[in-house]
Write a structure and sequence with these properties.
Structural class: alpha/beta
Distance between the termini: 31 Å
Radius of gyration: 18 Å
Shape: globular
Bound molecules: flavin-adenine dinucleotide, FE2/S2 (inorganic) cluster
Length: 296
């Protein structure tokens, strides 16, 4: 049963180009929310926009009751959200959806070993809370974080605080590896060594043998390439998908998405809000040409 919580804004700060981090007091969502789940937020105290907007749980602290969201300003809703000030309230439904699989929690279960988290743009949002939770569970994840330029690397501060090493890739080479985050994944120039917690000098590393499990979130095209990489190596993984949403709870069919045919040749449809947003990498029919411009 989805919860409805009146979250109170603590801060709302521009952390990168067109990108904001909002800190909220929302004790129920903070204690119930799992990595990969999302909140469906009524972003303004006005009747417009009428529909709620979905945002991944970027970080959460059950002890203080705080929840953080990372969002890019795209249109009406996120534009109004950027105007929220400390003390304002935001009605949030959540936590919603199926989150990422954590080691030891479910079956099939990613090993505690070398999982790699591949995030592009604001697609890094659910991977930050995931990285923190994996480290807490005793795993050794590595985060690969791609953006156009260093001005877009909004999550660097919060990532360094998760305890997971991370490496940045920028298209213009202004920070970290020059190229896409998938180029970085394929380059093997990253390491799971716990000593390397920041995107400094990259070195070819024997530790960077193919990962045991891949989690990804970002633009559709990026996830399509990650899925092809995983398939070629037989590596299991999960992807967090995006869709325009209306109800957010599986009632309106607004977020239906085609999955790959099953072993019996049947083509299935999934509701991203309720059956996802996280799906096994090998179940998703990605649109390598781009599809929805998800979380660029
Ligand atoms: C499960 C889930 C988690 C998400 N998590 C985050 C997050 O952590 N941070 C974040 O910045 N965004 C996230 N998004 C996307 C976010 O919900 C949209 O950017 C937001 O709803 C846009 O609202 P708006 O009113 O500003 O834009 P609108 O005025 O509604 O639209 C502006 C433009 O953005 C496009 N657009 C809007 N929503 C989407 C969408 N879902 N997919 C593709 N294109 C869209 C529209 O087609 C239009 O071109 C998530 C989406 C989903 C489904
Ligand atoms: S948004 Fe209504 S079914 Fe998913």
């Amino acid at each position: 049963m989805p919860l409805d919580e009146r979250a109170v804004v603590i801060s709302n700060t521009c952390v990168a180009r067109d990108t904001y981090e909002i800190e909220l007091l929302a004790p129920v969502i903070a204690s119930e929310g799992k990595p990969g789940q999302f909140v469906h937020a009524h972003v303004a105290p006005t009747s417009a926009p009428l529909l709620r907007r979905p945002f991944s749980i970027y970080d959460a602290d059950p002890l203080s009751g705080k929840v953080w969201l990372l969002y890019r300003v795209r249109g009406l809703g996120t534009g109004m959200m950027a105007c929220l000030r400390p003390g304002d309230e935001m009605d949030m439904m959540g936590p919603l959806g199926r989150g990422f699989t954590l080691p030891g929690c479910e079956h099939p279960c990613p090993a505690l070993g070398a999982s790699v988290l591949v995030g592009g743009g604001v697609g890094i949002a659910p991977l930050v809370y995931l990285a923190r939770s994996l480290v807490k569970a005793g795993a050794s994840p590595v985060v690969l974080y791609g953006a156009s330029s260093q001005e877009d690397l909004a999550a660097r501060g919060r990532l360094s605080d998760t305890g997971a090493p991370y490496h940045a890739a920028t298209l213009d080479g202004s920070a970290g590896f020059r190229g896409t985050v998938v180029d970085l994944l394929e380059s093997r120039m990253w390491s799971a060594s716990p000593r390397r917690k920041s995107p400094g000098r990259l070195e070819r590393s024997a530790a960077a043998s193919p990962p045991s499990f891949i989690y990804t979130c970002g633009p559709e095209q990026m996830m399509a390439t990650v899925a092809a990489y995983a398939q070629a190596r037989g590596t299991p993984g999960e992807a967090s998908l995006e869709a325009h949403m209306a109800c957010g709870v599986g009632a309106c069919l607004g977020c239906a998405r085609k999955l790959k045919p099953s072993a019996h040749g049947e083509i299935g449809y999934a509701k991203i809000c309720r059956d996802g947003p996280v799906f096994p990498l090998d179940a998703v029919e990605f649109d390598a040409a781009g599809g929805e411009e998800a979380r660029p």
